[in-house]
């Protein structure tokens, strides 16, 4: 199978880095459910949110921890599947993601969309499954478009996305081992 994997918040603990940045830079404690735009902007403001996003998707990428079990499960998945990191980052930001993956000895290709939806990249690459922490934020039409091109959308559940509505056809996992189990199940089907 060809697996598409989001980078920020899915492979890396980008939410944790945002919390750390807000605490160290402005002495503001963001709760885990307040790290994305809709939760953070009312607290830190739009300008600070932009700054935090730019910095955490830039030079601070190197210092961002992986999500629990992400490295070991990705290593396992690479043994039997094609894996592509599909990130919404811009090209210059994607370079930081490539360095992070190299630093962690993960030989994975990185494709960026420059904030465009990932649907077309999934179609062109023939991605069977897309794991992403923001997939339910983008709504029913986005999930439907992914399904239409043959890509199963899978939500990586985190505190800031658990309560959002789930589009039809969207699957969800709460951990990397759960994602590995889902991939095994799909490969057997």
Give a verbal description of the structure:
By secondary structure, the chain is an alpha/beta fold. It has two domains: 135 residues, HAD superfamily/HAD-like (Rossmann fold, 3-Layer(aba) Sandwich); 50 residues. 45% of the residues lie in helices and 14% in strands. The protein has a six-stranded parallel beta sheet with strand order 3-2-1-4-5-6, with helices on both faces. Helix 2 packs across helix 3. The longest helix is centred in the N-terminal third of the chain and has 13 residues. The protein is globular and about 50 Å long. The model has no long low-confidence stretch (mean pLDDT 94).
CATH superfamily of the largest domain: HAD superfamily/HAD-like
Describe the largest sheet: 6 strands, parallel
Mean pLDDT: 94
Task: Give me the Rg, rounded.
Answer: 16 Å
Low-confidence stretches: none
By CATH, the architecture of the largest domain is named 3-Layer(aba) Sandwich
- Count of distinct strands: 6
Number of helical elements: 8
Q: What is the overall silhouette?
A: globular
Total number of domains: 2
CATH fold field value of the largest domain:
Rossmann fold
- Give the proportion of residues in helices: 40-55%
Strand sequence of the main sheet, in spatial order?
Answer: 3-2-1-4-5-6
How far apart, in Å, are the first and last alpha carbons? 12 Å
By helix and strand content, what is the structural category?
alpha/beta
Following the backbone from N to C, one meets helices and strands in this order, namely: EHHHHEHEHEHEEH
- Name of the level-1 CATH class of the largest domain: Alpha Beta
Instruction: Report the β-strand fraction as a percent range.
Output: 5-15%
């Amino acid at each position: 199978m060809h697996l598409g994997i989001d980078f920020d918040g899915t492979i890396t603990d980008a939410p944790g880095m945002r919390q750390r940045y807000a605490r160290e830079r402005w002495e503001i404690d963001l709760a885990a459910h307040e790290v994305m735009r809709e939760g953070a902007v009312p607290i830190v403001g739009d300008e600070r949110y932009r700054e935090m996003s730019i910095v955490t998707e830039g030079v601070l990428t190197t210092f961002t921890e992986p999500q629990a079990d992400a490295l070991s499960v990705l290593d396992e998945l690479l043994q039997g599947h094609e894996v592509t990191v599909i990130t919404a980052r811009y090209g210059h930001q994607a370079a930081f993601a490539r360095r992070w993956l190299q630093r962690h000895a993960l030989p994975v290709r990185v494709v960026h969309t420059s904030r465009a939806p990932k649907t077309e990249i999934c179609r062109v690459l023939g991605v069977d499954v897309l794991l992403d922490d923001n997939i339910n934020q983008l709504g029913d039409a986005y999930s439907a478009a992914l399904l239409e091109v043959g890509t199963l959308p899978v939500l990586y559940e985190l505190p800031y996305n658990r309560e959002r509505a789930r589009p039809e056809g969207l699957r969800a996992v709460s951990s990397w081992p759960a994602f590995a189990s889902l991939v095994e199940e799909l490969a057997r089907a």
